[in-house]
Each structure stands twice: as C-alpha cells, then as structure tokens.
Amino acid sequence: MSEQNILIRALDTRWRRLRKEWDRTRNKYSEAAVHDLRVASRRLIAVLDTLRSLVDDPEIEECRRRVKKSLGALSPLRDVQVQRLSVSKMARRFPQLKGFQKSLTEKEARAARKVKKLLRKGTKLGRAIAQAKSAAEDHVDDKAIIRSVDKRYREVIRLGKMVDPSNTATIHRMRLAFKKFRYTAEVVQPLIKKEVTSARLKQFHAFQTMMGNIQDIEVLSAKLTKWARKEEKRVEDLKPVLPELDRQKEKAVTIFMNSAHKVHTFWKMTPPRPASVELETPSEAAAVAEIRETLPVLRVASPSRTDLSKK
C-alpha cells in the first residue's frame, strides 16, 4: 500500500489494536487493561478525526459517533480511578478524606459493572469501520495531511496566546486543541518523521500531561466540594483539604507556565500562501506581462494596483 493511504493503514492498525485490547479486558479485567483499552479507543478516534477533517463524508462521521458512543463508559471509569488514586495519597495526611475515598470506590465499582456489561456485548463496530475505510480511500493525499497537522498547530498557537494563568479555562482550551494536534501528528508520523521524531512525540505527551494535571486537580476539587456540601459536618472537616488542592493547582499552573514557551518549538508552520492580485483591467494585465518578459529569470510578484497607477 502506498504512502498516499497512510490514514487507511492507520485505521486498519488501530482497529486491530482496539479489538485486541477489548478481548484482553473482557477476558481478564484490570485497571491497567481498562487504561490500555481507553488509549486504544482514543487512538482509533484520532484517525477518524483526521479523516473527518480531510474527507467530507457522512460514513466517517457516523463511524466516529458510534466509536465514541460504544466506548463512552470508559472515560467515567478511568476518571474516577484517577481521582481515587489521588485521594488515597492525600488521605495519609488528611484522614477526613476516608469517607470521600469510600464514595469514590463505590462509584468506581458501579462504573466497572457498566464497562464489563459493555465488553460482553462486543464492539459491533466492524461494519462501521469498513464503511468509513471505503469512504476515505483514494480521497486523501500527503499534502492535505500535512496541512491538517499545520492547521491544528496554528489553533494551538492561537489559543496559547490567550492563556492566562489566573484563568485555567484558557489552559483547558489550549489543552483540548493540543490533544488534537498531538493525536494527528501521531497518526501521520511516518509522513513527518523527520520533523516529529519518537522523542518529540514523548515531549508532546509530557506537555499535554502538564495541562492535564491542572484539569485533574480542578475536577477533583469540584467533586470533593459537591460531596462535602451534602452534609454540614463534611464541610467543616474538609476545610484544611481544599486549600491544599488549591496549592497543588497553583503549583501545577506554575510548572506549566514555565514550560509553555516550548510549544513554539514543536512544529514549523508552513508559510501562508501569498494572495493573488486580481487584475481588473487589460492595461494592468499588460503591464504585468511586460515586467515578466523584461525579467524572465526572476520570480516577480504581481504589482499592486497602487504601483500600476503610478506608471
């Protein structure tokens, strides 16, 4: 298969990986298996996202929707697992978190039951994947793929200029855009391996993790606050804990802001195409032709209408 079909190859590879992780998790359920299955699902969705940005076809959109829906139960489970691990560490210093830790364990068990039920049903995605593959074949070329990476990086830079450390919502928006850029770069990495090496992909992951740490702390703080407000005694007991989470968030923001400038080294944007000058009159067109004939070796930019008026 040619380089032109790199996204189709990626779709095949990641679909096989998802099926493998699905079977492994169904046969031997574990926290690590759930994590690997979630990663495999995200990577498959990343391929479909990239295809969707390049090929306007309802089959690709429908396939992406079905993958996200089928795997939707995984995100809540993984989120509560991350929260439980964080709380278990903090509970050594703050034993008043034991009640909240127990509620997270119960919530995790409920989410795990949903995931196990989903796994028993099977993926049921084979037909949708085949239809998306058929819709995308022979419709994507290398230049279009590179432009998609470039476009997503430009959005990261645009949002990066708006980042305000006192407003973490601005960091969150940049994180979401960076995820799209990173996943797209991973998908098409064989095309851009000189610019995006394996080491560079690890840098992408570390950069995204810094922003993700901020989001995780904020979500945990919000969950804890909501749980505490259900009983007045909880609010009083947890007064020392919330400032600790605020301190952790402030530290995470500082770490990110000290490294935020590195995003400008991750990808070299292609220069925008020069806008062509519209020549409205025959005399203007003739003037340009005369210049080009006089200087045949040089690449002469079309003169502006102002310059022509001065002749």
What features would you describe in this structure?
The chain is mainly alpha-helical and 311 residues long. It is built from 13 helices and no strands. The protein has helices at residues 6-27, 31-54, 58-70, 74-90, 98-121, 126-136, 142-160, 168-187, 198-228, 232-237, 241-259, 282-294, 305-309. The protein has two domains: 1-139; 141-269, no CATH class. The longest helix is centred in the C-terminal third of the chain and has 31 residues, at 198-228.
Gyration radius from CA atoms, angstroms? 26 Å
N-to-C SSE string, H for helix and E for strand: HHHHHHHHHHHHH
Beta content: under 5%
Name the poorly predicted regions.
Answer: 274-285, 287-311
General shape: globular
Mean pLDDT: 85
How far apart the termini lie comes to: 56 Å
Q: What is the tally of beta strands? A: 0
- What is the makeup of the main sheet? none
Number of helices: 13
Based on secondary structure, the structural category is: mainly alpha
Percent range of helical residues:
over 70%
Number of domains: 2
